[in-house]
Write a structure and sequence with these properties.
176 residues, alpha/beta, two-stranded parallel sheet, LD_TPept_cat_dom
């Protein structure tokens, strides 16, 4: 009986706290396709801004707000059967997958790269590529369930974050 009650409670309980999402202070990631930059926001401040690579064409990297559903260290590259950690693996050191376009976090993601020279360019098939050191930092910092906003916007990260309730006020933003 106890197992049955616990099972029902688990099915009914949310994975994220009830209320607004994100709450001020919750981790939040914004990717701006206009500048090919990613901002990581936590504790009501922009912790860092990183250069990224996005889709070859504007429609390849989906826009909207998504949730991180999968994280993997040294991800395996299924398309070409390349082991995780191999120098030729285009996914680099980490995979942070999100649920864009009804997927499960295994199609679209923020990941490292084996081609650092392409960071800042429009070269991917839809994913967001980062330098391996930076994606490792992000991977270690953000929990599953973190919201990811992908947009193409000329406004500052602060203005976008305030609109989406990831920040409550403007601040001095560190640039990396």
């Amino acid at each position: 009986m106890r197992f049955f009650l616990c099972s029902i409670l688990l099915m009914l309980s949310p994975l994220w706290p009830l209320g607004e999402n994100p709450l001020p202070g919750d981790p939040y990631v914004i990717i701006n396709k206009a500048s090919n930059q990613l901002a990581y926001i936590v504790d009501n401040q922009v912790e860092g801004i990183y250069q990224v690579a996005t889709g070859k064409t504007d429609d390849l990297t989906p826009e909207g707000e998504f949730s991180i559903t999968v994280k993997a260290a040294n991800p395996y590259y299924r398309k070409k059967n390349i082991e995780g950690g191999a120098p030729e693996n285009p996914l680099g050191a980490r995979w942070i997958g999100f649920d864009a376009e009804g997927t499960d976090g295994r199609i679209y993601g923020i990941h490292g790269t084996n081609r650092d020279e392409l960071i800042g360019e429009f070269v991917s098939n839809g994913c967001i590529r980062m330098h391996n050191q930076e994606v490792i930092h992000l991977f270690d910092s953000i929990p599953l369930g973190t919201k990811v906003l992908i947009t193409k916007d000329s406004r500052s990260f602060e203005d976008i974050a305030i609109e989406h309730k990831a920040l409550t006020k403007k601040q001095d933003v560190p640039v990396q």
